Amino acid sequence: MRNFLILFLLTCSLVVFGNDRTKFSFNAGWKLHIGDAVGAENPTFDTREWKEVTLPYAWNAEEAFAKPIHEHSTDIVWYRKSFAVPKGVVSDKVFLEFEGIRHGGEFYLNGKFIGRHENGVMGFGLDLSDALLSDQENVLAVRIDNSWSYREKATNSTYQWNDKNFNANYGGIPKNVWIHFTAPIYQTLPLYSNLKTTGVYVYAKNMQIDNKSIDLFVESEVKNETKSSKQVNFVVEVRDIDQQLVKTFSKGYTLQPGSTNILKANAPIKDVNFWSWGYGYLYTVTSKVVVDERVVDAVDTKTGFRKTAFREGMVYLNDKVLMMKGYAQRTSNEWPALGLSVAPWLSDYSNRLMVESNANLVRWMHVTPWKQDVESCDRVGLMQMLPAGDAERDVDGRRWEQRTELMRDAIIYYRNSPSVLFYECGNESISEAHMAEMIAIRDQYDPHGGRAIGSREMLDSKIAEYGGEMLYTNKSNRHPMIATEYMRDEGLRKYWDEYTYPYHKDGEGPLYKGNDASDYNRNQDSHAVEAVKRWWEYWTVRPGTGKRVSSGGVNIIFSDSNTHYRGKENYRRSGEVDAMRIPKDAFYAHQVMWNGWVETDPTGLHIVGHWNYMPEVKKDIFVIAAGEKVELFINGVSQGFGERSYNFLFTFSDIAFQTGELSAKSYAEDGTLLAEKVIQTADVPYRVKLKYVHGENGLYADGNDMVMVDVEVVDHKGNRSPTALNMIDFQIEGPMEWKGGIAQGPNNYILSESLPVEAGINRVLLRTRYGKTGTVKIKAMSNGLQADSVQFEVSPVKATDDYFVKESSMNLPLNLSRGAGPTGSTVVQTRETLRIKRSTAGANTETGINSYDSNELSDWVNDGKLSTAWIEYTLDKKSDINEIDLKLNNFRSRSYPLQIFVDDKLVYEGNTPTTLGYCTLSFPRTKGQRVKIQLAKSSYVASENKHEEIGGKKLDDGVQRDDTNAKGTLSIIEIDIHNKK
Questions:
Q1: What is the Cα–Cα distance from 904 to 902, expressed in whole angstroms?
Q2: CB-hemisphere CA count at 13 Å for 33?
Q3: pLDDT tens digits, 139-149
Q4: Are the C-beta atoms of 559 and 548 separated by less than 8 Å?
Q5: Spatial distance between the Cα atoms of 145 and 123, rounded to a whole number of angstroms
Q6: Is 12 in contact with 805 (CB distance < 8 Å)?
Q7: CA angle 69, 74, 75 (to 5 degrees)
Q8: Residues in domain Glycoside hydrolase family 2 catalytic (predicted)?
Q9: 466 SS3 class
Q10: CA angle 577, 165, 336 (to 5 degrees)
Q11: pLDDT tens-digit readout, 574-632
Q12: How far apart, in Å, are the Cα atoms of 317 and each of 271, 548, 820, 906, 916?
């Protein structure tokens, strides 16, 4: 039987990888010891009392959401695995691929030190070839230290990104490990750390979107570790989504003994399906090294082809402008009691949910994501902004070198992923010299990938290819400006509003660092409304609204996170979905506002909240819609049209609850019905309802595959009871491990087999046990309700001696739901920006250009006297003028009583609102050539800038100057003068 299984595995691997290359999962058969163990690298060390584990396995993962990030346990731990080389496998070269460890690890094979890896983030490789015993058992021992203060052994330097605020510490080996067997002539792995190799690079040139054609280039680093020269043929095969052969091409080479070579081949490809947002179309590119008509090595690269450009302040995908909309997600992307070590299908589930909310971009925060998430984004059609590693500022010396080395490794590892559109060099601005270093790394290792490289801020950089602040609005007509994390507001999914038990008063909670923390203790009504307010500021300056535009932004965060928190709970609840990925109302708000490449699909409509209240309740009903008008109905009776604000928010004040049906209809300006939504009053809770989900590619006993089970409380008609908070007791039978879910309560119910539904629903997870197959049955009960149960089967893995084929990561479906993309222009020009020729001012005329120079780090300011608080702009020519965008200093906190004159005619008088950056002032269309902005009377503090960042730093509020008491000061950072059509 053993030989049959080995033959079966070899057959499977040969089909995929070629004659002499074999790849297996190296996840099974490990033992774990928490705490240092002197001599544990010795093969004869006694490990009988050690815990048996299957990777990926963070030794402290069960602390996820049970403990706040700064209390995550640290220690020195040992992992060990015994293994032998399978008979019949070509094993001239043997490599281990670790997708990542946390944080610093030392590796021993048969007692011999074979390498070290210390950045705690990226994938890396180890060459086992020289130390491997080919005809007897081998012992691999790994010593890992996940201390928050870990120091690099050679330099004694800490790592900037090993930070308690944002980088959840799931220690040990929380990611996959693979073993590769090859012949002495082989294509290298894309693992620069330790191996110093770069692997395969696939890219396209001359992309013709309309003609559906590309020129495809494939480069592969190949080593000849024989003692003779070899004539080889470098063959490339391209297969489509159905694995149908699209193209074959080749080129001959001579490989000198002991040499490292870059083999290249290229050919035109027709009828190409281009990768796009929500259209994860991937090709399989197989690169083969053929000697004497025999394939000695073959590597599959999953990739997609898309065309990009970054210019005029906008992002272009496949020749169409695409406004960036999405989430700044913590790289750990964690789940309760599991941390980041989830099944591959669950990564797809989470990342596809972002796409279903109509996000097109995820910005992973501070550190590089793991391979499973990167490949998942390829499949689901979600663009990525990929960092290397950083904290909140630029650094020098060894810590800067660590950042460049990590960026190099990340680019090499992920440069074939079509979803990676941006490389991020820092979560704070970096110097131009440092930016130039990063650009050089990108140009060396990914010169043809069509990926922009930049950093947060970089508002005045001459070489960064994108920029954008955190919590503010920026505009540009040069490199795109993308808000890298806006809206930090937090709120539990459990809290509907102030009228639903447990009657959470909006904003009620503890202070944060001595400040009012109401923004971090919202209910769902308030959280959804705030989501509309915040996005509206980016939408108003979207592509098409002038010469200088915002290219969009990402909301922090997508799912509640076990990282830095500010509210009542010990984890961050900023997510549009909770930690188990159950949507909050803000999820649907974004779904409405973000549905479109630039302009919004007018059919979007969502009623915020539920319709199960006490008879005496009167409350405001909020409807989020992309139409021009919204009408509300109760049991078919119109309640009138909503008051529109922030373009997408429609408010119906003091609506009295009546049992039955609440519906909303949205209309176009001409009265055409665009959409209708209905919510109903549920009857009293009647029964528990279960639904289980696992990967479409099957459920396997690989020790990491998972099942997700939804539990609802429903009425006798099957409608969810939206106010139900019933406790649910679970019973589990079968070969799976209970990992549970999360709810408000003791220890957040982590790992508990009893937990309540919240807003009528909750969700739990179970994990397979390695090699344990059979039937699993789950029963859910609640006092006074009918119980429910589900059952399913766990399939075996193809394995022998702890080598196995990880089928749970194979044949995962591609998301093609949004189609190949729009055919016409995605930009509607709503305003013409009028060119400013010169300016004059009451004071400091020479710096007037600072207010229209596309540099948001500079401004024009008068001398503090009210009499000099004016500036006049002369346009290129006489024009119709009816709208002005202003970014004023202290935009977050100060209001300016302004007068605006066009050719000496007063056209506007009023107080500017506080904003995230720009305020738009509208007035009747007036023809003129001179525009004067004048402070009518002293400015005043309209909204206290009270919020703090991590470490207590106040949020920026404009240029770095103290204007607190300068009431006669007028300061303009940027102005745009428009003719709105």
A1: 5
A2: 19
A3: 999 999 999 99
A4: no
A5: 17
A6: yes
A7: 170
A8: 310-448
A9: coil
A10: 40
A11: 999 999 999 999 999 999 999 999 999 999 999 999 999 999 999 999 999 999 999 99
A12: 18, 19, 11, 43, 27
Could you identify the residue written with the tokens 């055409």?
Answer: 672
What is the per-residue DSSP string for 22-52? Answer: EEEE--SSEEEEES--TTTTSTT---TTSEE
Residue 842 predicted with pLDDT over 90? yes
> What does the alpha-carbon distance between residue 824 and residue 821 come to, in Å, rounded to a whole number?
9
The residues, any chain, with a CB within 8 Å of residue 623's CB and separated by 6 or more, are 605, 606, 607, 608, 630, 632, 642, 649, 650, 652, 664, 666
Q: Which two tokens stand for residue 255?
A: 């490989």
Could you tell me the CA-to-CA distances from 778 to 604, 731, 743, 762, 907 in Å, in that order? 37, 6, 19, 15, 70
- Say whether pLDDT at 389 is over 50: yes
Position 784, amino acid: G
Beta carbons within 8 Å of 143's beta carbon, 6+ residues apart: 36, 40, 41, 76, 77, 78, 105, 106, 108
DSSP per residue, 226-257: SSS-EEEEEEEEEE-TT--EEEEEEEEEEE-T
Give CA angle at 876 (875, 881), nearest 5°. Answer: 45
User: Rounded CA gap, 94 and 80, in Å?
Assistant: 18
Q: How far apart are CA 416 and CA 565, in angstroms?
A: 35
Query: Which run of H or of E encompasses 268?
Result: strand 259-269
Structure tokens at 86: 């399978």
**HSE-up of 314 (CA within 13 Å, CB side)?**
22
Half-sphere exposure at residue 169, Cβ-oriented, CA atoms within 13 angstroms: 23
Cα separation of 586 and 486, whole Å?
A: 14
Residue 478: both structure tokens together: 């040069």
Q: Which helix (H) or strand (E) holds 385?
A: strand 383-387
Distance CA 414, CA 404 (A): 15
Q: With beta carbons less than 8 A apart as the criterion, state whether 518 and 507 touch.
A: yes
Q: Kindly list the distances between the CA atom of residue 574 and the CA atoms of 328, 522, 569, 623, 739, in Å, as whole numbers in the listed order.
A: 11, 10, 11, 21, 23
| Whether the Cβ atoms of residue 47 and residue 78 lie closer than 8 Å to each other | no
Classify residue 490 as exposed, middle or buried by CB count within 10 Å of its CB (0-12, 13-18, 19+): buried
